[in-house]
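Sharing in case it's useful to others searching the archive later.

Someone asked me privately for the predicted structure of Globin, so I'm posting the question and my answer publicly. Question first, with the sequence:
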Amino acid sequence: MGAAETKTHKSPTEVCKVTGLSNHEKDLIRKSWASFMKNKNENATLLIINLFKMSEGAQDLFSKFKGTNPDELKGSIRVRSHGLRVVAALNSVVENLDDIECLLDMLQHIAHSHHPRGPTKKHFQDLGGVVIATFEQSLGKKLTEDVKNAWVKAYGVILSVIEKEYDVIEGNANEPTVEDAEVAKSKEENKENGEVTKEEGEGKTGKVEE
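And my answer, the predicted structure tokens:
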């Protein structure tokens, strides 16, 4: 008989130094998100309608929706399409809660892709409340206080990274944060283990190996 397989079990109370989320909180986020995604199209539309209602000026960023009563846009394919893009971004966050380097890179990309289009830090701040409000409508009793608090904490990370990247874009960057330190530490550990980062791979070969 072969050697028995051993599985590594993560402690529910272990906390990520970058996000501040415990493994238990990450599990709550994943499970609630899975429930949310069961009605993905409907919830994507609801998310954008809530954004238009709750975030001043957000609807005006979309020329085709400007001046229209948000409730009249519930059947709009364009609204659903944009909502699905927001949902896809949130889905990537959920999928990469344990991959900090990838998570931060994605959020920085979101900042760079949105900044030229007009959304402000305030819009991203408002989006946090919009997400929670949408969860309250779509998840009902499944959105317990523990689940809600986990999402509030997770969105705090999202907002922090995006706001910081906006500062970089606008030339108002501050001193390196704990996120920078942890990512740098992770890269050093990878080097010690003989692993090659994406950037290093591109520098040596001109492309990233699949």
